[in-house]
Amino acid sequence: MSIDSGVLILAQAGVGSVKLNKIYAAYSLGASKRQILQHVILPNSLPEIFTGMRVAMGGCWGTVVAAELVAAESGVGYMIMVASKFLSTDIVVLGVIIVGAIGYGIDILMRKLKQS
């Protein structure tokens, strides 16, 4: 399963989890389909969508680091590869810590976006 399909599946699950009572209530109050989408479905499905985006960001960050490890001439992954060739364990460990810290920062940013 690719990263895109994971986000899509969680977005679909979020839309499917909207209670029909809310949609029927909006219809009974005279809401149009656009208003129901904008004011009922989207706000109620955002937690699932953000969860999918949060998971996808982790996968994307891992892909960037892996690409740097394989075929880059700069970046943290390249630094780790060069240091490993020269048996500079301290630089390799520092690189891994940097990768982890950036990944953790991305996760914190996604959590803050979800809360706001």
Structure overview:
85% of the residues lie in helices and 0% in strands. The chain has 5 helices and no strands. It has a single domain, classed as MetI-like fold. By secondary structure, it is an all-alpha fold. The model has no long low-confidence stretch (mean pLDDT 89). The two termini are 29 Å apart. The protein has helices at residues 3-16, 20-28, 33-71, 76-85, 89-115. It is rod-shaped, with a radius of gyration of 21 Å.
* Proportion of helical residues: over 70%
Determine the mean pLDDT: 89
- Rg from alpha-carbon coordinates: 21 Å
The level-1 CATH class = Mainly Alpha
Overall body shape: rod-shaped
By CATH, the superfamily comes out as: MetI-like
CATH-defined topology: MetI-like fold
CATH architecture type = Orthogonal Bundle
Topology record:
Elements lengths: L2 H14 L3 H9 L4 H39 L4 H10 L3 H27 L1
Helix pairs in contact: 1-3, 2-3, 3-4, 3-5, 4-5
Please name the defining characteristics of this protein.
single chain, 116 residues, mainly alpha, 5 helices, 85% helix
Short description:
The chain is an all-alpha fold and 116 residues long. The chain is built from 5 helices and no strands.
